[in-house]
Amino acid sequence: MTNETRVAKGRPTGGEFASHDRTGDDITLEDTRHWGSTGITEGSRTPWGEAQRVEDIAPGITFAPTAGHGGIKLSPERNREIHPALRNRNAWYEEDCDRHIVAMRFNEYFNESAESASDGVRRWFPDAWETATGLKIRPGESRVRDEANFVERHKDDLISHGARNADDGTDRLIVSVPYIDGEPAEFYMSKDEVKDQRDNPEVGQEHRILVDPERHEKLPPKLKPVLTPAKKYTLSDVGTPKTPAGIKKMAKDLTQRFRSRDGRVRSLADELNAGITGKTAYIDESGKRTYHLTQKENVEDSTITVYPVSKATFDVVGAPDSRTPRDVAYQDYSMARDKFEKLSGWDDRVKARNRVAELKAAFESTPE
Length: 368
Description:
Elements: E1 45-46, E2 49-50, E3 55-58, E4 61-65, E5 70-74, H1 76-79, E6 92-94, H2 99-105, H3 114-124, H4 126-133, H5 143-153, E7 158-160, E8 163-165, E9 172-180, E10 183-190, H6 191-199, E11 209-211, H7 244-254, E12 257-259, E13 265-267, H8 268-274, E14 278-283, E15 289-295, E16 305-309, H9 311-316, H10 325-342, H11 346-365
Antiparallel strand pairs: 1-2, 3-4, 4-5, 5-6, 7-11, 8-9, 9-10, 12-13, 14-15, 15-16
Helix pairs in contact: 2-3, 3-4, 10-11
């Protein structure tokens, strides 16, 4: 049999999923089994968003990248060939770690050796790899297993994930550990010791630093800042919309339900009874202004909870608007500019251009 490179219809011929030459013992007869279809096309939904494009690696194997990530989709027929310990029920295998699972089983379609694919599975999915292969992993062969074992060995020790220079001018570092008696804690450690731990780590230690509270000097606890409770506005601070349509929109807003951080499901009316602390508006990707009520515990808090509402509700809630007059002026100008760019009629564009110029001047003249 002569050497040949076979490229399935629609498969890419370069890059991560490229075909590769097979010679000698690597050559196999053409696979004539029916592998079904993934049904994935450009625009299909994936676990990582909308598929921007698709690459048919082989019948029943499709690579679908998205704006932020991507993965491989297997047909039901292909997915049944994956060992149960490694099989994803939804037949999706993300492109970084999971793809080794697919490459291990269907290696002839990937520009990756069978050994490399198996190593990738062993590294990221040690328990499943052992079940699928019947082999045992040794220390140093799986980062995930090694790190888990390290954490278990040191479950009663203090472990830091980083260090920074001390602010007292000395040649030492400050390492932080998550909690001691419910509070974060910091310790001084020499740069040489930190370097030694990083240069000679235990198996599985990676970037972690072991802290010994008996040897390392603990910094005094930081004083907690005095926080100012944010003023809350309740239903008693909400007016009534002026139009029947506004009243209807507000009634709909109040029945909206949200899941809070503690897992409770509450309506917007419930949140207003408890008190909200502000309101604001944003311009979304389509150029439309969206309105929101906001909630936080303290004035100094940087994290807020946001509740989308209609403009009718926004207008009658007595909480302060976090936008400055200049913010509002810029939003007006930005919306007018976006509208102008979407127009095609000459007369409409002339009017819109004049409006853009007027709102731009208003924005530029509004003080900071």
